[in-house]
Amino acid sequence: MKITLHATPDITPRPLIAEVILETRALLNIDRADVKPKGGEVVIDVPPDIYDQVAVAFEKRGATITALEQPLIKDDDECVNCGACISVCPTGVISFREDWSVQMDLDKCVQCGACVTMCPHGALTVLKS
Q1: CATH of the domain at 98
Q2: Its pTM surpasses 0.85
Q3: What is the CATH number of the domain that holds 34?
Q4: Which domain holds residue 106?
Q5: Which of 4, 59, 81, 115 would disulfide-bridge 85, Cβ 3.0–4.6 Å?
Q6: 3 state SS of 51
């Protein structure tokens, strides 16, 4: 399960993720990070069986998190299955089926937005948390 950690200026200087890993013993993977001194976002892959424990650990440290339940939406009426999005996806979310229609493995999505920019028909939308 993926979450977005919303980093605010008061928590960015702290080793927040390391503290949560040490407390929960969770193996967390950072999929995407855009954090500056003024704040930002970190997309973290959390094992589903300990999601609640990890969420509580972040929140008790003053962090706000949001679960990424469906980070990418494809408008099937607009999609022409051209595959332009496939070539730019850094995590392999999008691929062709055997019938050459586009399919998505949303568990891999890190909300980078590259596919949205590349899509010539505007068929993709990244949900920002």
Answers
A1: 3.30.70.20
A2: no
A3: 3.30.70.240
A4: 72-126
A5: 115
A6: helix
pLDDT tens digits for range 16-74? 999 999 999 999 999 888 888 888 889 899 998 999 999 999 999 989 998 877 678 89
Rounded CA-CA distance 80/8 in Å is 40
Do 63 and 11 reside in the same domain of the chain?
yes
Amino acid, res. 105: D
Length of the chain: 129
The CA-based dihedral angle spanning residues 115, 118, 122, 126, taken in that order and rounded to the nearest 10 degrees: 30
* Contact between residue 129 and residue 68 where contact means Cβ atoms under 8 Å apart: yes
Angstrom distance (rounded) from CA 95 to CA 104: 6
* Residues sharing a CB contact under 8 Å with residue 99, sequence separation 6 or more, in sequence order: none
User: Is 59 in the same domain as 80?
Assistant: no
C-alpha 57/C-alpha 23 separation (Å) is 8
